[in-house]
Amino acid sequence: MSVHRGQIAVAGEGWDGTVPSHIQGAQPEDDHPTVGDWLLLAGDPPLPVRVLARKNLFKRRAPGDPRREQMIAANVDTVFLVASCNQDFSVARIERYLVLAREVGVRAVVILTKVDLTDTPETYVAAARAIEPGLVVHSVNGRDPADVAFLADYCGPGQTVAFLGSSGVGKSTLVNTLRRSDSIATQPIRETDGTGRHTTTVRQMHRLDQGGWLLDLPGMRELQLSEATAGIAEVFDDFERAAQDCKFSNCLHGREPGCAVRAAIETGALTADRFARWRTLEAGDSAAPTPSTRRRRR
Question: Does this entry carry the keyword Transferase (predicted)?
Fold first, then answer.
């Protein structure tokens, strides 16, 4: 249900409580419980024995130590990529979240909040939809229950919806509104730059009356992706397709002759800004240590 330092909160049939997060006998490279996991417990008092097989796992490179991976959440059905209609809006950040979702095969929906604070919400919607053809984008006033009621369709019985976004975009407000509760603390954004303070400090699941689950995650402005080659290729498939027509298979898309990517940028079929973001993500992914490299460095 939630992850704390050295402890995890669990919920099961007839028993809720906290247990140690460490599984006895587990090795450093073994999987450890994260929010959303199904966990086998045994004994009295109950202790974690094994993490059951996951259908997916969100993870990133640990802040400050690219050799380590940080697990974010497991067994997610839909991820809401939450961004706000103010100066903190970032196409590059949404793309990073989208790459993360594509890498683990989870349905992604972009939720644009704070539409009540802008006179031109359509410009933010258009910018988000331009990221990828067919990308589902909704704009909402997160404080208005009537305005967000349709989002409950994603949160039916047995469904887990995770919220990804930077601090201050309204993730916790959305969770409160969908739960018809104000139990999760929220804070106003800074007026100077539109960014928010960390309100959610732990990853935590919340039960909905209709049977679904909402997974509120702390804000992440810096999302260093880990082993996201497939996700990058899917989100930037227009550049991937163009690169297949380059004269040289190892083309760096700089000054090489016969570069189809550069040709497409010159004709306006592709954009230079999106090209720069593609190369940044590719460079970061290629620099990620492999599992074997991480073991050697211990």
Answer: no
